[in-house]
Amino acid sequence: MLIVMQSHATEDQVRAVCERIESLGFRAHPIPGAGRTAIGITGNSGSIDTGSLEAMPGVIECIAVTKAYKLVSRDMKEANTVVRIPTPAGEVTFGDTAVGMVAGPCAVESQEQAFAIAARVCGAGVRLFRGGAYKPRTSPYSFQGLGETGLKILANVRDQFGLGIITEAVDNESLDLVEKYADVIQIGARNMQNFSLLKRAGQARKPILLKRGMSATLDEFLMAGEYIVSEGNYQVILCERGVRTFSDHTRNTLDLSIIPAVQRLSHLPIVVDPSHGTGRRNKVLPLSRAAVAVGADGLLVEVHHDPDRALSDGPQSILPDELDRLVRESREIAAVLGRTLN
Ligand code: PEP
Ligand code: MN
Fold first, then answer.
1. In 44-104, beta strands by DSSP E
2. CA-189 nearest atom, ligand 1
3. Is the pTM of this model over 0.90?
């Protein structure tokens, strides 16, 4: 259910409607828009008797939202959500006309490794650095990440290079720590339906980068976003990273058609990860170009200065020189569409 307020409704009127909704045992989600505020209602299992709400001062109408996802849907909020990541070198945005860039290694392996790559990420003009301190690996014998030591290295990367930090939380305990150190908390593909983790992410005070599960449908992906937003965290960036198919020429099949599909149904920004989406270094540049062309709100790519010795995802990590080219070409394609890179 969505309550649409008049454009000149006062803050007191909005507050009164929210209080009435809460007194009925539901949850109110005020969503300020360009022209007027709307108030989403969740927590109802059936229909709500809207009579008393409709009669309140400042209310225009009550609209039933029929989709299973509510708060992330465009029915609820027409304008794009713009997620703003403050970095020491200025704000990076996702969801406006700029294409947000993120680059860095799959995993933080050591301070030397992170610094060597960060220097090149910075040199390429990218202001958000990715790198896992907690790695969800298929094998328990593979490198699992440096844990909090890795987070401290990432904090040093921020201090030294002025880069914002995106890193993954794999469970509630790591999320507590990641929230302290990072600028954006990543929830990985394997955890897209870890509902207790999604709820915890919804209580975090930092933006969330939510990756699509490797066999998730569009509805399941949006419902995962709904879990986060329903807990009060509207700062969600979705990320397409490829799904499982029968194709064996790539690690996953990058589903670029989900970008316009998400943008039609949801106000949340969506970025593309062509590294996990292909698993092959030589396919990262062409799929990055395609992602920008299809209208993605950003790119997230893995880069390593010595990928043959990387402790995870070396085969899909591009070299720093290739990152320079990727940024240059992405900027040119973005410009054709009237967009910039940030
Ligand atoms: C990653 O970003 O390194 C990662 C593990 O991604 P995904 O969850 O998409 O596999
Ligand atoms: Mn990886």
1. 59-63, 83-87, 90-94, 98-104
2. 8
3. yes
Residue 8 to residue 145: CA distance in whole angstroms: 52
Contact 17, 56 (CB under 8 A): yes
Coil vs helix vs strand at 129: strand
* End-to-end Cα, the chain, rounded Å: 36
What are the backbone dihedrals phi and psi of residue 180, each rounded to the nearest 5 degrees, phi first?
Answer: -70, -40
Spatial CA neighbour of 322 closest among 292, 284, 289, 293: 284
Rounded to 10 degrees, what is the CA torsion of 180, 181, 183, 186? -90
Identify the CA nearest to 304 among candidates 292, 293, 296, 316: 316
Q: How far apart are CA 241 and CA 239, in angstroms?
A: 6
Alpha carbon 221 to its chain centroid, in Å, reads 12
Classify strands 298-302 and 340-341 as parallel, antiparallel or unpaired: unpaired
Q: At residue 196, what are phi and psi to the nearest 5 degrees?
A: -70, -35
Tens of pLDDT, residues 6-47: 989 999 999 999 999 999 999 999 987 878 889 999 888 777
pLDDT tens-digit profile of 121-156? 999 999 999 999 999 999 999 999 999 999 999 999
Ligand nearest to the Cα of 271, by number? 1
Which tokens in the block code for residue 18? 């929210």
With a CB cutoff of 8 Å and minimum separation 6, the contacts of 118 are 104, 129, 157, 160, 161, 163
User: Within 6 Å (CB) of ligand 1, which residues are found?
Assistant: 106, 132, 136, 188-190, 211, 241, 276
Q: Which of 154, 241, 311 to mutate to test the pocket of ligand 1 (most atoms within 8 A of CB)?
A: 241
Q: In this model, does residue 335 exceed pLDDT 80?
A: yes
